[in-house]
Amino acid sequence: MQDSGDPIARGTKRPIVRLLREYAWRYRWSYLAGGFFLWVTNYITVSIPLQIGHAIDALRSGQDLTRFVGLIAVMGVSVIIVRSLSRVLIFNPGRHVEYHLRKDLFAHLLRLQPSFYATSKRGDIVSRASNDVTWVRTLVGFGGLQIVNVTLAVVLTVWKMLTLSPRLTALALLPILLGSAVVQFGIRRLFHLARRSQEQLGEISEHVLGSLQGMAAIQGFVAEEAFVERFEARNRDWLRIGIKLALIRSIALPLLVLSGGISMAVLIGMGGSMVLSGAITVGELAAFTALLTVFLPPLRSMGWMMSVIQRGRAALERIFELMDAPVERPEGERGVVAEAGHGPLIEIDGLNFAYPDEPGRPVLEEISVTLEPGSVVGLFGRTGSGKSTLLRLLARLYNPPPGSIRVDGHDLTTLDLASWRRRLAAVPQRPFLFSDTIEANIALEGDADEERVRRAIRLAALEGDIEVLPTGLKTVVGERGIMLSGGQRQRAALARGLYRNSDLLILDDVLSAVDHHTESTLVETVADLARHRDGPTVLISSHRLSALRKCDTILVLEGGRLVDSGPHAELVRRPGLYRDVWRVQSQAAAAEDEVAS
Ligand code: ATP
Ligand code: MG
To answer: In testing the pocket of ligand 1, which one of 4, 352, 355 has its CB within 8 Å of the most ligand atoms?
Structure first.
């Protein structure tokens, strides 16, 4: 697992502001109401100490206390009710923000092209979509609540303290201010460590995912130890950073608590002499002390809050980076929607192409050819000659250079991507089956229509194989179709292509794992489809010429260039790659038939 160029650009401008604008703003009323209730809670909380102060002074002057006791009790109960209300009003939007963020992220992932996935790390993406999103929920829910709460508590207590004695307030708060200033230093460091820690979590996921997928290779080549070691290295790194993060937090908290303690000492020392000199009453000093006690818990949660904010900010940055990965759609949001329902005319003119990650190495060069509507076109060439690449360009999995491929007269890059893809059925060389039933794998885009599924299976010569399976079409094929043989998997993918009534059927080497006879039947079937009125244009690539023999025309690729084209009968008469390969392959096929009979 080496590092390849990461397609996700680093850094997002002011992620928290963006979150507030794009996701949290729509819940502003809920937040506002929650904020109001928090204010009420805090207001009552800071008023209680003043009532206690009055009560003490009243006690000293021998007055009746019932009124104060009743008032304080009512205040206490109200605080509980109003606080619960504020929590609901602030936490719920946090969950909604998380939901929308996850939804948008997944939708964006589905829009990104193969060029993105070729170079990005899956583990990293999974980690951003799961761990990081969870951190953001903590930030907007819990974090949001605490920020408002602490700010209100601090402002209100300080204000109440100031009304009692400005001098005492200044003296009492000085140690706390100093302590907070020191803690601020740790915050920047916390952000970078949080970011690093989240990245490492992504690397760990990547390693686990990759190992799970390649388990057969790991075990088959007895590479378990090497993989465990590589995993250990990442795991240890993650532990180290986690410990550093915890260290910063655990230094910050006692520092804040200590400064609170010093404040209390200052208050009692200085306040005592002020009472003696008659500057304030005993009740006022008691109220002041109680106020400081109210002030200390929010102060303590500040260390924790800081870490939530920094972690959330780092997570947000990673989420927005992924959401900003560009979707390369040259046609913009709305492209040309060409008329569907018939095989398209495809004109390729001077097509040159290199993969985006290796722009210096041309894979296709100067290809010019016209594919007639409803024709069956074969694509032949040695391995690496560019067959799959040409087919990928037609399916627009990669964007061809503008002007080089035209479909029914429209430039392919100006066509609306979704409606173009809806017109085609492309079966790739390495098909992917989901861990689902065969039926669901064939009818990928919606509810399965059993009649159509059966027809597709018959056409793909898969009927016999399905019959022997325990639950037929409802058989679950396991992760990546692991329960099927290579040839069965190929034909299941072919059935998926045939299930959809497409205008352009692209079959990239899908018959390599079937025997000669099945191959001939399959080619016949597909050619029959094309020969119907308004039948699809069909493109079949193969190394095996027997599979292409029946095509209307065959394109011969060599090193990314189109070196010859024509029907089989013509090509075997001309000297060249096609004729050479034909001679070798037809002899081998004859020998194979002999053995089989
Ligand atoms: P095969 O018969 O083995 O399937 P092919 O004719 O389909 O071969 P392509 O898959 O089109 O050949 O590959 C053509 C060239 O492009 C090869 O040299 C290959 O290394 C390169 N190539 C293929 N896919 C990519 C990719 N995603 N990124 C970069 N280069 C690629
Ligand atoms: Mg190929």
So the answer is: 355
